[in-house]
Request: fold
Amino acid sequence: MKIICVHGFLGSGKTTLIKRIIHLLQGQRIGLCINEFGSVNIDQEEFKEMSIPMTEVHHGSIYCTCRQSDFVEQLRQLFALDLSYIIIETSGFSDPCTQKTIFSYLQKQGYHFTICNISVVDAVTFDKWSKVLSLLHRQLLQTHYIVLNKISLITQQQKENLCKQLTKDYQKPIIATDFCQIPLEVITDFCDGMADKNIVQQKHVELSSFVCEIAKDMSLVSVLAFLDKLQDKVFRAKGYMQLREGKFYVELAGEQLYWRSIDGEPDNQLVFLYSSRLLSSAAITCILQKQKDAYCESM
Reply:
């Protein structure tokens, strides 16, 4: 049994990496555990049609004391399925400093597995977030491989500088790529290292999540304008929705605003993750209503 833990901040490309790993491991028995900080898991839509056993842990990080027992139980369910690989998508705010304790406990219970930690770094936003979120530093201290993602969105000089910085600070293998195109060897050549027990716990980060209903008569332009007003106030927002022009997946991560056409039946919900010190659900609702009013006036 091999466990692959995927770490990385919001919007860095964790889901993209997991889809790449699943593609590389075609024919293998794979299970998936998804950790979502909030109560709604948008990413599960990405895996519904893959016929992969999947468990979920909501309302906090799998490494937090409040969620550890739930995480262990979800892993036990996957262990019972006689899988070759378990892929764990951690929350963007996960601090893996307790990983060693959790996995050591499971190994003492008689479960046998090796662990590979892979951290996805967003080449565009890492410099900004790493200065204010120390947990990103701890994710990279824990990792075995760094996937430097979205390199086509920065200059060659920026890429070289970032690679030098990451190499100097963490001394880990770096795969510089777009769309998390890692080679199979990253998965099959496992490291047996565990978390550094001397890593200190992060200070409390006041995080909140909020689910916002989006009306089907809104336009894509209007929704994008709404999210643009929140770029400097939220860590991430994403959702599937039916709008006037069609069906779309929309995502805001840092300063990056992205959308694409989709099939299926969207639930028309936008899930926000933000700091309660900077924003409130009432403020998000108010901004949305003003955007609706502005759109109606322009009609």
